[in-house]
Amino acid sequence: PTTDCFPSYLRNYLICKILEKRGGELKMSFPEIMKWNGWGYSDSKFLFNKKGQAEFTGKRYRLSGMIIPGLKDWMEGTFGANLQHKTPATVSPATLNKAFLEELKSTGIPFSHDAEDRVFRAHGHCLHEIFALREGKFGRVPDMVVWPNCHNDVVKIVELACKHNVCVIPYGGGTSVSSALECPPEETRSIVSLDTSQMNRILWIDEKNLTAHVEAGIVGQDLERLLNESGYCTGHEPDSMEFSSLGGWVATRASGMKKNIYGNIEDLVIHIRMVTPRGVIEKSCQGPRMSTGPDIHHFIMGSEGTLGVVTEVTMKIRPMPEYQKYGSVVFPNFEQGVACLREVAKQRCAPASIRLMDNEQFKFGHALKPQVSSIFTSFLDGLKTFYITKFKGFDPNRLCVATLLFEGDREKVLQHEKQVYDIAAKFGGLAAGEDNGQRGYMLTFVIAYLRDLGMDYYVIGESFETSVPWDRVLDICRNVKARIIQECKDKGVQFPPLSTCRVTQTYDTGACVYFYFAFNYRGLSDPVHVYEQVEHAAREEILANGGSLSHHHGVGKLRKEWMRDTVSNVGVGMLKSVKDYVDPDNIFGNRNLL
Amino acid sequence: DKIRALDPMLKKRDDFEDMLEERRNSSDLRYALRCYTPVLYKGLAPCKASMLKSMVLQSDQLHHVIGQVSRETGRAADDVQEEASAILEEMAHCLQLSTVRFFAFTLSKVFKTLFRSICVNEEGIQRLQQAIQEHPVVLLPSHRSYMDFLLMSYILYTYDIALPVIAAGMDFMGMKFVGEMLRMSGAFFIRRSFGGDKLYWSVFSEYVKTMLKNGFAPVEFFLEGTRSRTSKSLTPKLGLLNIVMDPYLKGEVYDINVVPVSISYERILEEALYAREMLGVPKPKESTSGLFKARKVLSEDYGSIHVYFGQPVSVRSLAQGRVNRCQFNLVPRHIPRRPSEEIQSFVNDSAYRLVRAQEENMVLKPWVLLASLLLQNHHQDQTAGQKRGMVLEELTAQAVWLRDMFREYGAFLHWPVVLLDICVGGQVKPGEPHSTVTPEEELLSQAVIVLSCASYRNQGLHVFLRPALLASAINAASSNLKQEVFNSFSFLRNMFSNEFILCPGATVQDFEEACYLLVKTGALQVTQQELLVTERGQRTVAFLTSMLDPFLQGYQVVCRFLCEEATENLTEKQFVPAVRKFIIKHLLAGRLRYTEVLSSDLQKNSLAALLRLGAVQKIKGRIKLSKVTYSSVFLLRTCVNLTYNC
Fold first, then answer.
1. Which residue in A476, A478, A544 is closest to B326 by CB distance?
2. What pTM was estimated for this model as a whole?
3. Residue A356 is part of a domain; what is its CATH number?
4. Quick one: A527 and A498 in the same domain?
5. Do A471 and B332 touch (CB under 8 A)?
6. Exposed e or buried b for every residue in B359-374, given b needs 16+ CB within 10 A?
7. In whole angstroms, how far apart are CA A47 and each of A64, A365, B184?
8. Are A371 and A418 contained in the same domain?
9. Contact at CB, B328 and A546, closer than 8 angstroms
10. Which positions bind FAD (chain A) (predicted)?
11. pLDDT given at position B253
12. Which domain holds residue A42?
């Protein structure tokens, strides 16, 4: 995630360009730059060229424009995906509902009820949502989209919504993977999607206290870029930061890759302003810590759009780091890797980011290696492989890789780096170079694009996460992966699925684990249903192994059924009573969480 | 699916191969020295027997318990650690291939002399091989003879399958040389009782779990805990099953495969010993010299053995929907805790299910049928005061009738193509005892023969158990009303649940199964309200009822003993001799029909049942009638009445 990955001026430029008057109505949409039925930018995607080699198009990523020779073999080997078959994609028109239109016109706030605008905001990025889009099927979509420009606009919209009993669903970056943006099919009222994308300014920066006051619709990469111009950063970098918004982070309790230095969202926010049907909720001062009863921020963080719209946030900022360095370590097996991460966490010396990929994911990363530029590099690669597998005796089917990112002033980074590599060595880890590390992080940004390629070739997949105490990490990884494989087999999936994981964050007492899972669905009549059953089973397995319902993706509607077991009856009752007080008429009726 | 569950006829079984045949045709030495390369568990981290010990001693669980014991007793932690290490030393196996090869050679010789054939279902072996690769495996053989575990290892060695580590009772350790030999062939030794010894329990459970989790070897133990002296399956013991299921329940392994193995002997080596033991001749202590004295058995014919490796049962699928594994989320998993009620009942039900799986695949020989018929005939003769035995043709005819019934009830029968080449001069009856001095001695020596005979009959009891309970219930009930019959079925079933394998809480299923079988064979008609025995069902019902009769009389006589003779000071130890004296008196006076009630096994089971039902109480080691509650007196009286009716 260095800045060269994110030519983000494009997005702002296009947002301005696509605001145009059409037939007396303001129309606003993204289709030219963003895919409407897949992840990310329209110009960036994986495809197979005429020679049958994989290519990543566009100019946005380090991988862009490169040939990836290993991908085809990997896909065929892993999924039995035959690249001859292709699924056609179509989209169906949506039905219009103009109930809220007249009331809103007088305020001058831009809105639209164009089909594409509405469909675009009717989904997040769960597999079933994207699959439905590609198949041209879609259930309930919002009846219109509004684009407030500031806090006061939001206040007006929410007031009108209460007055006319209209359902409001806040929309930030649309990167949800918990069915949180799905419109409840049973909702009979008019549904308004409240798109915060126009509220994207930094209102002020306070260099004395190192805080910035920012509108909640700002997208991660813009926030970083704008702060960088003044020499600051927030350091909050979730994998979705190209598209996800500040308000979305707050509403879902987001976590960033570099949380070891900067903290998760709950450590970063100083002040939140939220518009609710009861009015505006906010604290009266910006003290760094308060003992004033339960922290009201914790009612807001993770409320998932059920209580109101976050409009403005004051965040901690830090001076930009002087120096960044990637790194990677190869371990003989996953067990040793986890033991090393545990030791790093124990000594509290985790770098800005430390992630451990299992063997399957390591192989996958290998398949995404771009074509090497010279015979010399290729020779060098061969030599490295030889050293690790033959000389060091690592089994290529067991070894795994940790990727590292160090940040800070140069001297400290180098010192820190040495400390971490020394620990790794105690667990049989070998330093495997900066390049491997950097490629590992790049992968997390392009992996979402890869899913779209998969779907073209009958492969569907998804990722999900959990957090778990240290003593359970190995058990949960093994059991969940095995459960996925077994469930796929039981449900009639004809090819062995990809079932892989990585330990992606470390804490004092536990870790965050990410699972990736994909399978070839040829021969299945209802692949999405099979997929959902497998994911459901995998989540049950996670919970049975002491994992949490979610580390940072949130609950949405996808994981609602487990909330009661997770927080107890009384817990659900507490949350319900807050909802009942703040939003008695269920204006924020996305039905997430409870 | 429900039909399939109820109808045992629909269960498919594999064919057998005689593994001794090859032994008879090729060199035993070459066989013992051949290349042995078993397939192993896919997740196995290779380790030696000695490494296992250090893994156990360094485990979190043991560390925790050592700390606890040291705090509680004030002893130094090092001291307790040393004790743990000594316990482990006493317990641990040291599996060595050379010893196994030695056994392979000698056992080949012994088996060829003793047995005509050892038949194994090879498909079951293949399933086992598959199961071993996928998940850690637990082998659960039935237990009828000391031979069982040698035989198991012998078979696994022959089929190139990973050799098991076997939980054995400490009694073998008395036989110095043999004990060490067994240790080197994979046996590990556990004390018979270590109730409150936390440290011992901890070392033991950790040792078993470590072997299982690492896939070091299949773990083998006997669910019944001890050899069944009566050829009936024993109520399963749950301790070890609890231990081996723990790693799955705590998520330490993805799954565990449990493989029930049914070993059926045509004739058990210990046959006569068992009968004497149950009549009060104490069991000889295991000793090496005793073993050599026992070598005269080598000259006898023990027929054939059938070993059936059942379908591997996944613990994960057993626990599906039954156990909420989240219960381990809030306390570190290495801190030992009493299993929750949910888990206790799960393990208990699983244990019953597994014992029933063993029973289902037990191979029954014609002798089982003949013994049942002869015993019934013998009792009828006795009542009539005659000693005529049975005419061979009549026995044959009855045996064929019974065979068809066995088959319909789904028994795993091995019926020879040529029937009965034995030729006894016209009449067949249980053997005649040698002439003895006192009538009591005569009675006892006859009882030895009857009990041996009964042990053959008992092999087939599980096939008839539920229909027989129903038949007796129909007889005992005051009307044909379904509810009435069910009530008396339920009472009988409850009373006999120490005697037979009857899973607690499955009364309704058992009742349905019994009805289904009797209706299917045309012996019973079930209407909305009533159960009616058909004309042709009379014979079946009579046969089934008389199968249970000896047991009913046994329970009745124990009840009468307790009502009439039990003094205030009857201790548990005195119970068996006292009740035996009481029974001998009544038998000699001709007031009791069944010599079988002399079996101490039957007496102990009935006492256990009466204790469980609350009719009797144990206070400070003494057995007392619970006079306090009206219901217990009522219960006893019902029990007595009911058995009189039958």
1. A544
2. 0.87
3. 3.30.70.3450
4. yes
5. yes
6. bbbbbbbbbbbbbbbb
7. 11, 17, 62
8. yes
9. yes
10. 170-176, 252-255, 304-310
11. 95
12. 26-195
